[in-house]
């Protein structure tokens, strides 16, 4: 089973992960700069730029995390919807024989919970 557009989504997630890593490095640099300056006896007022830059980078990092989660949620929901549609089309195409053979409870569980588990699986493998 191949997931359409999975390479594109993986590429975007990888790019966002690299961007997030750069933001973490920026946070680290700004915070260590402030701490080192304060440790050597400097005033906090002389470090306002570094403190402000730290909070801006911190916010940007969390913005990237939000975008990654949003992108992954959208992709997983889209794929789950497609799978659910394919399952229901097959059930209607094959007819009531498959429902009788598998059981209506089993088919309902597969259509509802099974597809939700696939959505969770997509979250796990892509994140």
UniProtKB/TrEMBL annotation:
Question: From what superkingdom does this record's organism come?
Answer: Bacteria
Its placement in the membrane is given as: Multi-pass membrane protein
Q: Extract one GO cellular component term from the record.
A: plasma membrane
Q: Which GO terms describe its molecular function?
A: ABC-type transporter activity; ATP binding
| Cited InterPro entries | ABC1_TM_dom (IPR011527), ABC1_TM_sf (IPR036640)
Gene3D superfamilies assigned:
ABC transporter type 1, transmembrane domain
Query: TM spans, by residue?
Result: 38-60
User: Transmembrane helix: is it a keyword of this entry?
Assistant: yes
Localization terms from the record: Cell membrane
Question: Which residue intervals define the domain ABC transmembrane type-1 in the entry?
Answer: 16-127
Task: List UniProt keywords, sorted A-Z.
Answer: ATP-binding, Membrane, Nucleotide-binding, Transmembrane, Transmembrane helix
The answer to whether the entry has keyword Secreted is no
PROSITE patterns for the chain: ABC_TM1F
| Protein name per UniProt | ATP-binding component of a transport protein
* Upper taxonomic lineage: Bacteria, Bacillati, Bacillota, Bacilli, Lactobacillales
């Amino acid at each position: 089973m191949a997931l359409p557009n999975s390479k594109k989504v993986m590429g975007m997630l990888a790019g966002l992960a690299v961007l997030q890593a750069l933001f973490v490095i920026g946070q680290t640099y700004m915070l260590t700069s402030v701490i080192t300056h304060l440790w050597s006896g400097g005033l906090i007022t002389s470090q306002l730029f570094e403190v402000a830059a730290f909070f801006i980078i911190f916010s940007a990092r969390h913005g990237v995390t939000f975008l990654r989660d949003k992108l992954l949620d959208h992709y997983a929901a889209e794929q789950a919807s497609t799978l659910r549609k394919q399952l229901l089309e097959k059930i209607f195409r094959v007819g009531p024989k498959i429902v009788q053979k598998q059981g209506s409870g089993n088919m309902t569980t597969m259509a509802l919970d099974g597809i939700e588990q696939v959505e969770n699986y997509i979250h796990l493998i892509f994140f």
